[in-house]
C-alpha cells in the first residue's frame, strides 16, 4: 500500500514508563514513525493516561524500562497498579504489544534473574489475562546485546508494522538523526543556546533539554527533589526543579571573606546548606531558577566564578592541602591557579548571561571578558569532561591517579618546587554491567618543569580534543583514548603537539590518600586545624550548629580556609596570638571533635538522593549510618584508630572516586549496592567487584567477619585493601582494562 492510502489509518496509542529518557525517546520515535505510515498516533507517559479509557483503545503499545529491583519507572507505577489490581478492566477488543528495556546481567545472581525486564513481562502477561490480543510477542531489549536494547527492538518494530498492516509503506521520509551533545555544542554559539531566554520563562521551573547540557559549562546542573516527586505528581505539579551550582576554586583555597559570602548565598539563595565537594570546591543545592542569576552574581562578587566547573572542558584544578608546609603549598597552589586560568574557556557567553545588570552593563568582577572564539577548545569544546589534580608527596589526598591529568609535585634540592611528574588517562566513571566502560589509573608520561607544566597540560588536553571519541559519550574520556591509541603513541603525539619531550620521571613516595586531622604547625609558625566534615555537608542541625559555627569563625578568622579533596576543611594560617580564640570557638560549636573511628575519618560519599538525578541509591545520607553499624566490630577488635578507606556513591559515575577505595559500595538500585574490595591505601590501585546488588544485611554479614579477620590475621603495617588481596578475598586490578577480569562473583547466565 502507498503512504496516501494509509492516511486514514488506524489509531495507535503508545504509552511509556521511563526514568532516564530511553523508553520515552523510543516511544516518541515510534509515534513519529507510525505517523509517517499513516497511523493516528498518540504518545504519553503511562501515568498521564486515563486508565478507564484503555478498554476503548483499538491498538496500544507499551514501552517500559526497569527501575530498582524489577520495578516500574516512576511515571508508570500508578498505571501498573491500576492494571494489576483492576477487577473490571475488559481488554477483549484491544490489540496490544509491549517492549521492555532491560539488562540481563544487572542482577547477576540466579535467584535475581526474575528482575530482568520484569515490568514489560508482567504488563504483557497481565494484559493478555485481561483479554488483550497480542499484535507481536513481548519484545525484550537487553543492554548486553551488541547494540544494547536496539538489537531486539530492530527485530520487534517491523513485526509491529506488519501486524498493523503498514509494513510495506513506500516513500517514507528520511528520519533526522538524533541530536547529540556535539550538535548542541555546535548550535549553541559558544555556549549561549537559549539559556538567557529560558531564565526569563516563568511558566516552569525548568529549562530546555539542550540548555540543561549547556548550563553545565556555566557551572550549574538542573535537578529536582526526588523525595517529593510522587507527592507533587499527585498534586498535578511539575517536579520541584532547582539548580546545583558549583564554584571554580583552584586548589580549594578560599579567604575568610569568601566563606562568609558563600554562607550567605547558601542561606538566601540555596537550600541553607553547602557541600564541600571531592574536587575541593563549594557546591550549592536547591537554587530555584529565579535565584540562579543572583546566585551567580553573588559568587562573582566574592571574586569567584562557576564557569567551566562542569561540562566538556577542563574543570576545577585540585591541589594537595599540605598544612604543614605553607610556603611549599603556596608555590604548588600557584601552579594550580596558573593551569586553571590557562585552560579557561574564552567565550563571553558566561558574562553576558549571568553578569549583566538591569541596565545591561556587565557587573563582572572575577575574570576578564574577551572576544568570542575558543583558541584552545574550538566550537565543540572537548569530547567529555576533563579533570586535573596536583598531589604533593607523601600525601595523595587529591587522588592523583584518578584524573585525566595527575601532577605529582617534585621538590628541588633547594626545597622549592622544581616541577611535576605528569600522569595522564585516569578517570572514574563507568556504566553498570557495560564491560566496555571501566575506571583507569593515570599512566606516567614523565617529568615537566614547573614553568612549562601549564603548556604540557594544554597539549595533553588538545590531543584528547582531537582524538577523543565524539560519537559515543560512554567512550569519550581520555582514559579510553589512551588505551585505544596506546600510551607510547599518545605520549609521542603530546610531544609532537608540544615540540618538547618529557624528561624522565623523578622518584616520589605516597603514604596515604586521607587527611591529617587536628592541629598542625607549619614552618612559619602558623597553625592549621583540619576538621572533620562528614561527606562535606555544611549544615545546621538541632544538636550540631556546624554552619553557624563556621560562619562565626570565618568572621573572626584572619587567615584562609582550605577545602580538601576528601571533603573536609582546614582552618589555615592561624597565628599563635589568635590560637586560643580559635580553639575556643571550635570547641563552642563542637567543630574541634576529630575523635572518630579511623574508618569514619577515611570515608567519603557523593550527594546522591534527593537532588542528584543519576542516583540509583542513597549515599551521603546512608554511609554514616552504615559506618555506625560497623563501629562496634571495630571497637571490639582494636581497630578504632585504624584508617580504612571506605567510599560510597549512588551510581557508577564515581564522584567520590569509589574505585580507588579499599572497600567501596556503588549504588545499583534503592537499598542495593555493588561491593568492591582491594583498592590501594594511597589511591594507587583500583579495587574489584566482590559482590553484586547486595543489601545492608549482606553487607554487614560480609564486613563484620572480614574486619575481625583483618584485626587478627594482618601483617604489621598491612593495609586493609592489601590484606583482602593477600588472603585471597579478591584479585588485584593491575590496570583499568582488567577491572572486570577475575571478579569474585561470576554472573549466572541462566534465566
UniProtKB/TrEMBL annotation:
<dbReference type="InterPro" id="IPR005117">
    <property type="entry name" value="NiRdtase/SiRdtase_haem-b_fer"/>
</dbReference>
<dbReference type="InterPro" id="IPR006066">
    <property type="entry name" value="NO2/SO3_Rdtase_FeS/sirohaem_BS"/>
</dbReference>
<keyword id="KW-0479">Metal-binding</keyword>
<dbReference type="Pfam" id="PF01077">
    <property type="entry name" value="NIR_SIR"/>
</dbReference>
<keyword id="KW-0411">Iron-sulfur</keyword>
<dbReference type="GO" id="GO:0050661">
    <property type="term" value="F:NADP binding"/>
</dbReference>
<keyword id="KW-0004">4Fe-4S</keyword>
<dbReference type="Pfam" id="PF03460">
    <property type="entry name" value="NIR_SIR_ferr"/>
</dbReference>
<dbReference type="GO" id="GO:0051539">
    <property type="term" value="F:4 iron, 4 sulfur cluster binding"/>
</dbReference>
<dbReference type="InterPro" id="IPR011786">
    <property type="entry name" value="CysI"/>
</dbReference>
<keyword id="KW-0560">Oxidoreductase</keyword>
<dbReference type="InterPro" id="IPR045854">
    <property type="entry name" value="NO2/SO3_Rdtase_4Fe4S_sf"/>
</dbReference>
<dbReference type="GO" id="GO:0020037">
    <property type="term" value="F:heme binding"/>
</dbReference>
<dbReference type="InterPro" id="IPR006067">
    <property type="entry name" value="NO2/SO3_Rdtase_4Fe4S_dom"/>
</dbReference>
<keyword id="KW-0349">Heme</keyword>
<dbReference type="GO" id="GO:0019344">
    <property type="term" value="P:cysteine biosynthetic process"/>
</dbReference>
<keyword id="KW-0408">Iron</keyword>
<keyword id="KW-0198">Cysteine biosynthesis</keyword>
<dbReference type="GO" id="GO:0000103">
    <property type="term" value="P:sulfate assimilation"/>
</dbReference>
<dbReference type="InterPro" id="IPR036136">
    <property type="entry name" value="Nit/Sulf_reduc_fer-like_dom_sf"/>
</dbReference>
<dbReference type="Pfam" id="PF00258">
    <property type="entry name" value="Flavodoxin_1"/>
</dbReference>
<dbReference type="GO" id="GO:0046872">
    <property type="term" value="F:metal ion binding"/>
</dbReference>
<dbReference type="GO" id="GO:0004783">
    <property type="term" value="F:sulfite reductase (NADPH) activity"/>
</dbReference>
<dbReference type="InterPro" id="IPR001094">
    <property type="entry name" value="Flavdoxin-like"/>
</dbReference>
<dbReference type="InterPro" id="IPR029039">
    <property type="entry name" value="Flavoprotein-like_sf"/>
</dbReference>
<comment type="similarity">
    <text>Belongs to the nitrite and sulfite reductase 4Fe-4S domain family.</text>
</comment>
<dbReference type="InterPro" id="IPR045169">
    <property type="entry name" value="NO2/SO3_Rdtase_4Fe4S_prot"/>
</dbReference>
<dbReference type="GO" id="GO:0009337">
    <property type="term" value="C:sulfite reductase complex (NADPH)"/>
</dbReference>
<dbReference type="InterPro" id="IPR008254">
    <property type="entry name" value="Flavodoxin/NO_synth"/>
</dbReference>
<dbReference type="GO" id="GO:0050311">
    <property type="term" value="F:sulfite reductase (ferredoxin) activity"/>
</dbReference>
<comment type="pathway">
    <text>Sulfur metabolism; hydrogen sulfide biosynthesis; hydrogen sulfide from sulfite (NADPH route): step 1/1.</text>
</comment>
<protein>
    <recommendedName>
        <fullName>assimilatory sulfite reductase (NADPH)</fullName>
        <ecNumber>1.8.1.2</ecNumber>
    </recommendedName>
</protein>
<keyword id="KW-0028">Amino-acid biosynthesis</keyword>
<dbReference type="GO" id="GO:0010181">
    <property type="term" value="F:FMN binding"/>
</dbReference>
<keyword id="KW-0521">NADP</keyword>
<feature type="domain" description="Flavodoxin-like">
    <location>
        <begin position="12"/>
        <end position="161"/>
    </location>
</feature>
Amino acid at each position: 500500500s502507498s503512504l496516501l492510502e494509509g492516511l486514514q489509518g488506524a489509531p495507535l496509542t503508545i504509552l511509556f514508563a521511563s526514568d532516564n529518557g530511553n523508553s520515552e525517546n523510543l516511544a516518541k520515535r515510534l509515534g513519529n514513525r507510525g505517523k509517517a505510515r499513516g497511523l493516528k498516533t498518540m504518545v504519553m507517559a503511562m501515568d498521564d493516561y486515563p486508565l478507564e479509557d484503555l478498554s476503548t483503545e483499538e491498538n496500544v503499545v507499551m514501552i517500559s524500562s526497569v527501575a530498582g529491583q524489577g520495578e516500574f519507572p516512576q511515571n508508570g507505577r500508578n498505571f501498573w497498579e491500576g492494571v494489576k489490581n483492576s477487577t473490571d478492566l475488559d481488554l477483549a477488543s484491544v490489540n496490544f504489544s509491549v517492549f521492555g528495556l532491560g539488562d540481563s546481567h544487572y542482577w547477576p545472581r540466579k535467584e535475581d534473574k526474575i528482575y530482568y525486564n520484569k515490568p514489560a513481562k508482567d504488563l504483557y502477561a497481565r494484559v493478555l489475562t485481561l483479554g488483550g490480543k497480542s499484535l507481536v510477542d513481548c519484545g525484550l531489549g537487553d543492554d548486553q546485546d551488541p547494540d544494547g536494547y536496539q538489537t531486539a527492538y530492530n527485530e520487534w518494530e517491523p513485526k509491529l508494522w506488519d501486524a498493523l498492516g503498514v509494513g510495506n509503506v513506500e516513500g517514507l521520509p528520511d528520519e533526522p538523526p538524533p541530536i547529540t551533545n556535539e550538535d548542541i555544542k555546535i548550535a549553541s554559539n559558544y555556549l549561549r543556546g537559549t539559556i538567557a531566554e529560558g531564565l526569563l520563562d516563568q511558566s516552569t521551573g525548568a529549562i530546555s533539554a539542550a540548555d540543561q547540557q549547556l548550563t553545565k559549562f556555566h557551572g550549574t546542573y538542573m535537578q529536582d527533589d526526588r523525595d517529593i516527586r510522587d507527592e507533587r505528581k499527585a498534586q498535578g505539579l511539575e517536579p520541584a526543579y532547582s539548580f546545583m551550582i558549583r564554584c571554580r576554586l583552584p586548589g580549594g583555597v578560599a579567604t575568610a571573606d569568601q566563606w562568609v559570602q558563600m554562607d550567605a548565598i547558601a542561606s538566601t539563595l540555596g537550600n541553607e546548606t553547602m557541600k564541600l565537594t571531592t574536587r575541593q570546591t563549594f557546591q550549592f543545592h536547591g537554587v530555584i531558577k529565579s535565584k540562579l542569576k543572583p546566585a551567580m552574581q553573588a559568587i562573582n562578587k566574592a571574586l569567584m566564578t562557576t564557569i567551566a566547573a562542569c561540562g566538556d572542558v577542563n574543570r576545577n584544578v585540585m591541589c594537595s592541602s599540605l598544612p604543614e608546609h605553607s610556603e611549599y603549598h603556596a608555590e604548588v597552589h600557584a601552579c594550580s591557579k596558573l593551569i586553571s586560568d590557562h585552560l579557561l574557556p574564552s567565550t563571553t557567553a558566561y558574562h553576558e548571561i549571568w553578569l549583566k545588570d538591569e541596565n545591561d552593563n556587565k557587573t563582572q568582577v572575577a575574570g576578564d571578558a574577551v572576544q568570542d572564539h575558543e583558541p584552545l577548545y574550538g566550537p565543540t569544546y572537548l569530547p567529555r569532561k576533563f579533570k586535573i589534580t596536583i598531589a604533593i608527596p607523601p600525601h595523595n589526598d587529591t587522588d592523583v591517579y584518578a584524573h585525566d591529568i595527575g601532577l605529582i609535585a617534585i621538590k628541588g634540592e633547594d626545597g622549592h618546587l622544581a616541577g611535576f611528574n605528569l600522569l595522564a588517562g585516569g578517570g572514574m566513571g563507568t556504566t553498570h554491567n557495560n564491560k566496555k566502560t571501566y575506571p583507569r589509573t593515570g599512566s606516567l608520561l614523565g617529568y615537566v618543569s614547573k614553568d612549562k607544566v601549564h603548556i604540557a597540560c594544554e597539549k595533553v588536553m588538545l590531543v584528547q580534543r582531537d582524538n577523543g571519541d565524539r560519537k559515543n559519550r560512554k567512550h569519550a574520556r581520555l582514559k579510553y583514548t589512551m588505551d585505544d591509541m596506546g600510551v607510547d603513541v599518545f605520549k609521542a603525539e603530546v610531544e609532537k603537539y608540544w615540540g618538547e619531550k618529557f624528561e624522565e620521571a623523578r622518584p616520589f613516595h605516597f603514604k596515604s590518600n586521607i587527611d591529617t586531622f587536628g592541629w598542625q604547625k607549619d614552618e612559619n609558625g602558623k597553625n592549621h586545624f583540619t576538621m572533620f566534615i562528614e561527606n562535606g555537608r555544611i549544615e545546621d542541625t538541632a544538636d550540631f550548629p556546624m554552619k553557624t559555627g563556621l560562619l562565626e569563625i570565618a568572621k573572626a578568622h584572619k587567615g584562609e580556609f582550605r577545602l580538601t579533596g576528601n571533603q573536609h576543611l582546614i582552618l589555615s594560617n592561624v597565628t599563635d596570638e589568635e590560637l586560643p580564640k580559635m580553639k575556643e570557638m571550635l570547641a563552642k560549636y563542637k567543630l574541634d571533635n576529630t575523635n572518630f573511628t579511623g574508618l569514619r575519618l577515611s570515608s567519603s560519599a557523593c550527594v546522591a538522593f534527593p537532588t542528584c538525578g543519576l542516583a540509583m541509591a542513597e549515599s551521603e545520607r546512608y554511609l554514616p549510618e552504615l559506618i555506625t553499624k560497623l563501629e562496634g566490630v571495630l571497637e571490639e577488635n582494636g581497630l578504632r584508630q585504624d584508617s580504612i578507606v571506605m567510599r560510597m556513591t549512588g551510581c557508577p559515575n564515581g564522584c567520590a572516586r569509589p574505585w580507588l577505595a579499599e572497600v567501596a559500595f556503588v549504588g545499583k538500585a534503592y537499598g542495593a549496592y555493588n561491593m568492591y574490595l582491594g583498592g590501594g591505601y594511597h589511591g594507587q590501585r583500583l579495587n574489584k567487584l566482590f559482590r553484586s546488588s547486595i543489601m545492608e544485611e549482606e553487607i554487614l554479614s560480609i564486613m563484620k567477619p572480614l574486619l575481625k579477620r583483618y584485626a587478627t590475621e594482618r601483617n604489621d603495617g598491612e593495609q586493609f585493601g592489601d590484606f583482602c588481596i593477600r588472603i585471597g578475598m579478591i584479585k588485584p586490578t593491575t590496570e583499568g582494562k582488567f577491572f572486570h577480569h577475575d571478579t569474585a562473583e561470576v554472573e549466572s547466565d541462566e534465566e
